[in-house]
Fold this sequence. Notes:
mainly alpha, 134 residues
Amino acid sequence: MRELEQRLGRAPEEGEIAAELEMPLGEYQQLLHDTNSGQLLPYEALVEESGEPAAEQGAQSQPFEQLLDSQQRERLVAAIDLLPEREKLLMALYYQEELNLKEVGAVLGVTESRVSQLHSQAVSRLRAKLNDSA
């Protein structure tokens, strides 16, 4: 994705990514779906498994940790701003508005499965951007 983005000077579309991977678009979309299966966990489930992150640190965490957290948040916001509009909207609806995949699909006019694919693609883009800026 990074190579295509650099070559094209913009975020690549799914068809362009599939062509670069030398696979049919449907197969690429299935790969996204398979990759995304299990990634969408509610925050509460994560807290149950590993405990509340803030509770472990206490009310007063170290200033350096706070600075790193702030920098990471800024990098994430910058990476989200670079997403294509549709993926940006999806992320806002899912994480800020807390709509479920079916509701997001209704807003975007696509199936729940397609929302899952788009989410997986957006997460991949964000990971790539964050790894590049690390």
